[in-house]
Write a structure and sequence with these properties.
The chain is an all-alpha fold. Helices cover 72% and strands 0% of the residues. Pfam families: E_motif, PPR, PPR_2.
Length: 494
């Protein structure tokens, strides 16, 4: 039937709705309900894989439409139920997916190899270990342990529930382990911060693909093992694997953390030479690299070349301006961001406040801080308060800084009181410095830095008796650790 082909060719949910309406007005649907409704539901599921389609409509609208199709199908089969469960997992509605699965069970319909991976995915979204274990027992009961797709889903659900040892037990007991099995298990180890075990499994794999390499590189980068991430990426390139965006962004992040500008440029050149499409995800990694390595103008050029910037791309650029002290430029870009309809988040405002702090833009920072919740609906967190307290104190507005901290929901954290203490050191305000130091010592007694700051304040104000006392206090506090500073510079290409 040409109408079925027409449905399959739909590129958007809007088009699907139009064809659906056409099947009703042309009186085709009443004559062929099963074939038309099934293909409508299947095509709808495929369209949900596109982010643009999901962004256009609310989840409630999409689930309502899917249920209306499902409820119109006479005598739905296991395939139909599986499709509906898949739709709800794609829309992150795991409880609804579970209810549909229970309806399937109550109707005594036959379960198949597609049912359990789908409902196990819903279980992963719910982070329910008891549900995962119950489903595992049913997988065993109905003889689906021989299916690698089901086994891989079990490995993932146990890993998501922080039961990586159980996941590994399932992995070892699997009669047929494919490359996906290894990748899922390595990802489980990585997400549970067991990098050594992930690397052991990586090294013993009979074969690897781009996902394997990307997962391992991302694990190293996220664990701050940046040199290992860079070395593994170079090994991957040497073996002529094509890195995916996860590997590329992860190695760019590692380069940014190490200050390895030349290695980062090599990665950027690799992207250009191989014609890899630079999407917002990759652009964010490149902007972050160049900004952190001191090349803010190259970061800006890279940023401007991106046509589909998201909030993360904007944040990377704003933070780049902040760390380079370009407060006025930062505020201009923040206005552009809002003007282009990008909703700022907590990271955005932290970057703006840091940039204002570095540039001494106190009035502008006050305005942004005040508008965070009232205008933009973004909740203030401890770091936002800490940044404001630090900036006010450095500007000599000690009392205002203290009042701000007292107004914090939790009464002030170590960042806020530490910022106030730093301002007191600059402006020689001994009395409030004592109060701030006492707060820091109570919140974080192992912080030895507060003793050093107070010693400097007492020395600068020639309060020698207090200087002796604070040094004795440091010696008596066995929990306190001295904070040592480190720096890294490249002397030559070796």
């Amino acid at each position: 039937m040409s109408m079925l082909n027409l449905i399959k060719q739909c590129k958007s949910i809007k088009q699907l709705h139009q064809i659906h309406a056409l099947t009703i007005t042309s009186n085709l649907l009443p004559h062929h309900p099963l074939s038309i409704l099934n293909i409508l539901l299947s095509t709808f599921t495929s369209l949900l894989n596109s982010k643009n389609n999901i962004k256009t409509y609310s989840n409630s609208f999409l689930t309502t439409y899917a249920l209306s199709l499902f409820n119109s199908i006479p005598n739905p089969t296991t395939f139909t139920f599986n499709t509906l469960i898949r739709i709800h997992t794609l829309l992150s509605s795991p409880l609804s997916a579970l209810k549909i699965f229970l309806s399937l069970r109550r109707l005594f319909l036959t379960l198949d190899f597609h049912t359990f991976p789908l409902i196990l995915k819903a279980s992963s979204q719910l982070h329910s270990l008891s549900l995962a274990q119950s489903l595992h027992s049913q997988v065993f009961k109905y003889g689906f342990l021989v299916d690698s797709f089901v086994m891989n889903s079990l490995i993932r659900v146990y890993s998501v529930n922080d039961r990586v040892n159980d996941a590994y037990k399932v992995f070892c007991e699997s009669g047929y382990r494919d490359i996906v099995s290894y990748n899922v298990m390595i990802d489980g180890f990585v997400k549970n911060f067991k990098l050594d075990r992930a690397r052991e499994l990586f090294d013993e794999m009979p074969q690897r693909n781009e996902v394997t390499w990307g997962t391992m590189i991302a694990g190293y980068s996220q664990a701050k093992l940046c040199r290992e991430a860079v070395e593994l990426f170079n090994e991957m390139i040497g073996l002529e694997f094509i890195p995916d965006n996860i590997a590329l962004v992860s190695v760019l992040s590692a380069c940014a953390q190490l200050g390895e500008l030349e290695q980062g440029r090599f990665v950027h050149d690799y992207i250009t030479r191989n014609g890899i499409r630079v999407d917002s995800y990759l652009t964010t990694g490149l902007v972050d690299l160049y900004a952190k390595c001191g090349c803010v103008e190259i970061a800006r050029e890279t940023f401007e070349s991106c046509t589909n910037k998201d909030v993360f791309t904007w944040n990377a650029m704003l933070v780049g301006f902040a760390i380079h002290g370009q407060g006025l430029v930062l505020l201009e870009y923040f206005s552009r961001m809002v003007g282009e309809g990008i909703k700022p988040d907590g990271v955005t405002f932290l970057g703006v406040l840091v940039g204002c702090s570095h540039a001494g833009l106190v009035c502008e920072a006050r305005k942004v801080f005040d508008e965070m919740e009232t205008v933009y609906g973004v909740a203030r967190e401890g770091k936002h308060y800490g940044c404001m307290a630090d900036m006010l104190a450095r500007a000599g507005l000690i009392e205002e800084s203290r009042e701000l901290i007292k107004g914090m929901p939790n009464g002030g954290d170590v960042f806020a009181w530490g910022g106030l203490l730093g301002g007191c050191r600059i402006h020689g305000n001994v009395e409030i410095a004592k109060q701030a130091a006492q707060q820091v010592m109570e919140i974080k007694p192992e912080d030895g830095g507060v003793y050093s700051v107070m010693a400097n304040i007492y020395a600068n104000t020639e309060q020698w008796d207090d200087l002796v006392k604070i040094r004795k206090s440091l010696g008596a506090n066995r929990r306190a650790k001295k904070i040592t500073g480190t720096s890294l510079i490249r002397l030559n290409e070796h």
